[in-house]
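#struct-help
A.M.: can someone run this one for me? Single chain, 285 residues.
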Amino acid sequence: MRPENQFIKKKKKKKNRFARFVVFLVLFIIIISLAFYSISNPSFIKNIRDSIISFYTPDSEDGGGSNEEAAEQSNTPDSASEGNQAPEDNSGAESPETTITTTAAQEAGADSGQAAQSGVFTVFWQKILSLLKIGPDADKNSMPSRLNIKVYFASLGEEKKFTYEERSIIAGDPQIALKSAVEELLRGPVKSFHYPVIPPGTKILDIEIYENLAKINFSQDFLENSLESGILDEYVIYTIVNTVTQVPGIEGVIFLIDGKRIKVYGNVDLSIPAIMDESYLEEES
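D.P.: on it. Structure tokens below:
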């Protein structure tokens, strides 16, 4: 064989190897991207599965039994999830928050489907970059399903110190935990010689989290009935602040009445967000 022919064959082999390498590299990138996307969006695989099932499912005239079997298979996860939630439904305090969590999960699934339609690969790379950027701090935003906090109330005594009762509140999300903490304050104490601080008739109109601040919107009763409570203004404000700032990520409180921010409550200055005041707390031994 001539040297020229050998040279041409070697050149073709190199080109073929390079082409195969490029193909494998593209497939590898696609597989890794799909893996990251399916981890952060569990509904992605389910949507693909449902699309395949619906494509291959025969019409109702040809095979009604197959449709019924597919319906039973699609209903199986729902029945399982209802079975898992049965113990939580027995406790009346947890059912509203469970509904909120379920609604949030459904909305997140719908949003992820829209994002996949508008730009799948953009979402892939955003997820990958966010994971690489967050790294070991990824667990900071996670919160347990329940949280143990100290709910502060007024007590008898000459010293201006708060007393507290330990409560286990529903959490799982900072906003749910924040609302649960305020609801515990509204329920009041259960022990003797502990006194409620929030004026009677006060209702929670809305609760939001802005960066590291809790924005609590109370009804007008918070102002109108404050004099009837017989509790010092500082006690009303700082039992709330010292309680809710135990929720991870909450460092201060902004008070609103009927949607309008108040900058003074009695003799308490609220022009800036109120933060925890440890002078009202007993020193732990």
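A.M.: thanks! Residues 59-105, 115-124, 132-140 have pLDDT under 50 and may be disordered.
D.P.: also worth noting: The longest helix spans residues 95-134.
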